[in-house]
Amino acid sequence: MALLETxxxxxxxxxxxxxxxFNMKINENELIGLIGPNGAGKTTVFNLLTGVYLPxxxxxxxxxxxxxxxxxxxxxxxxxxxxxxNIRLFKDLSVLDNVKIAFHHKxxxxxxxxxxRLKAYWKEEKEIEEKAMELLKLFDMQDSAxxxxxxxxxxxxRKLEIARALAADPKLLLLDEPAAGMNPQETKExxxxxxxxxxxxxxxILLIEHDMGLVMGICERIVVIDYGMTxxxxxxxxxxxxxxxxxxxxxx
Amino acid sequence: MNLLANFLQQLINGIHVGSIYALIxxxxxxxxGIIKLINFAHxxxxxxxxxxxxxxxxxxxxxxxxxLIIPVILCLVSGILIERVAYKPLRNSPRLSALITAIGVSFxxxxxxxxxxGQNPRPFPQFINPxxxxxxxxxxxxxxxxxxxxxxLLMILLDFFVKRSKPGKAMxxxxxxxxxxxxxxxxxxxxISLTFAIGSAxxxxxxxxxxxxxxxxxxxxxxxxGLKAFVAAVLGGIGIIPGAMLGGFIMGxxxxxxxxxxxxxxxxxxxxxxxxxxxxxxPSGLLGKNIKEKV
Amino acid sequence: MNSRxxxxxxxxxxxxxxxxxxxxxxxMGFINSYYEGILIEMGINIILAVSLNLATGYLGQLTxxxxxxxxxxxxxAAIFSSRVNMPDLPLLLISIIIGGLxxxxxxxxxxxxxxxxxxxxLAIITLGFGEIIRVIILNLKITGGGKGLSGILPLTSFSxxxxxxxxxxxxxxxxxxxxxxxxIISIREDEIASEAVGISTKYYKTFAFTxxxxxxxxxxxxxxxxxxxxDPKDFGFIRSIEILIIVVLGGMGNLTGSILAAIxxxxxxxxxxxFADWNMIIYSILLIAMMLFKPGGLLGKREFSLxxxxxxxxxxxxxxxxxNEGSE
Lengths: 252, 295, 328
Prior knowledge:
Oligomer: heterotrimer
Shape of chain C: globular
Distance between the termini of chain C: 13 Å
Largest sheet of chain A: 6 strands, mixed
Number of strands of chain C: 0
Structural class of chain A: alpha/beta
Largest interface: B-C, 45 and 39 residues
Helix content of chain A: 40-55%
Mean pLDDT of chain C: 89
Distance between the termini of chain A: 37 Å
Order of helices and strands of chain A: EEEHEEHEHHHHEHEHEEHH
Order of helices and strands of chain C: HHHHHHHHHHHHH
Low-confidence stretches of chain C: 313-328
CATH superfamily of the domain at 4-79 and 170-250 in chain A: P-loop containing nucleotide triphosphate hydrolases
Number of helices of chain C: 13
Mean pLDDT of chain A: 93
Shape of chain A: globular
CATH topology of the domain at 4-79 and 170-250 in chain A: Rossmann fold
């Protein structure tokens, strides 16, 4: 059974059908790219998958369960997390706090335990402090643990957003233009990071990107979308030669 | 037949006070539209308009035309001054700080006038002949007619000004996007000052009309009408000029009908209750646009 | 770790020390009942400010109806204590808890329509609810209507207020520095991102709002048994604004700031009494000036720490990353 499968997924805003007949399958541990021209509906697909938008047609199956209609935080609990096109960090909080917050839904201690500082509080807080620092170490950000998020350089902010999304323990990670604004060196590092986290955490990754070097370089499969509908899927080689895709997006 | 006449009478009262609320609401909505500030001091402009007029007529014995124009100009200038001194420095600060400052200005105005005039309410001069005109079974006082006509006239003028004139378009541009407006060569500071000037002038006129209808003035008279006018602006969609007009009339009519048919004690609650119901159904107000945040 | 134990010890010691000193001064007559009343008012204002701060500073939602919850707590506690026979201290505590619970219940019910809105619309609707509460109290027989409620038992004392205040501050401190507090703060920072990392924003908004209402009710209960007379006019939106001023003055999301500002705002009008009818004018000018010069509040984002003050500057010159105690 596929990890994620969409069946004729679609959404219309008033008269405008932003996404329609969207069919996609993602298996465990796969690295998939979602590409297409601006306005094609890529982020809309992300918003549909994460429950931010309610589809007007179709279904989304996560491990066989239809998650349409579930709230975003419920979908996180089911195993999908994401990053955002325009970074959405908790700007005035520290780097460490940004990551700690993402552990929230896995923690168990009650309000009373927090207020009266019962054993569970100390135990779990210590655990996530360690886990959060470990995660930051993987991204080489442990030295900035106490820096306020808004003071980080841009590239680090993007890394932090990915770290935070990982902290929420997903089975499927959605990355929305993670390389936007990065220079070739940073992009290369990002590619290595994405590979690394896929292998280490055994998660599937779906990424939206315009940087074809990155997409063709790391994605095992690519889904191409235009005007809200899939126009091609296949391996990078297949996509590179697909006439429809070239016409709509890639160019000669 | 009596029932109908009664109802129409209440309706007319509602339109009367509603038109005053609408005038005042315009000041709130214009300022909010352009700098996203809830100008708490606006309610006190009403009070200032009333007191200035009082002083002009009673203490200075000025002719009526002067006693109506001078207070409006004084309030207009006050509005501009307040913005320059108290709000402009906080344009880049958290919005809440400007809100607290506005509250401070409101307290200041109230207490300055309290110090000068004491807490005893003063009787406002009746310069409009109150004898009612009969239309069928209805008694409509001249005050009502003049109030409603003046209000509607001013609203039409304002609407025309905002839609057709260059400064009016500048106001709309600055409301949409201050940065872009500046890049287009619009003088943002003058535009904001103009907004405050017009809003305060309308507020002053609203204050005069209010005092003609309820002729006891005191330094805190602006608080409740100001609050209700503000609620009216929100009801119609804050920042939207036609919304303020619509909201004002709705508030006035609701208040009047409640006072007439339920109880005057509960009028305030009903008015806020309407607000809650409207916002629950239309979260951005009656004419507001529901702009969803882009994810 | 070590520094936290030291900080806790210093804080606990100073709390007990301050209490002992003040009680001695009261017993010996150096602090007469007028000044004792001011200390009680300070405590009540602190509870009001700290609870409003949770909803406004930490959760990030501007609410303008806090006085309504205070009113519910005040009237409920007063009505209860007038009908039950019990020794003073337990009676007070039970009454204010009942007041708090009733206020919390209303806060919980209000949260449903309130949180369908955002920003300034949310603020206005809370103002509306606050006014409706005031008008309802004005029109009920059991609350005395327009004449108000009088003959309330004088159960509030400096000691009881002091300890309720300290407990309140402690609860808010531990709440904010727990995962639940982090969840609340994340909503203020970025609601969409908060939802996207697994936090039920609806739950936590309701949660914060209800807790804020509860403690406003507690403060109301203490208030009722201190002023002994309740007038609905005391609980209008002007009162809500006064509490908001304290929160903004101290710094939004700043616990010690709220405490400091509450103390200042309690004392300030009285210090200005000497200026006769200029006092409110000076007060408003000071308010405007404080906002113009310190728009982020007196303490801004930095919490006041007695430990840091006493430990001196030694800590901040090391190589270790600087950790702000209050921001865990």
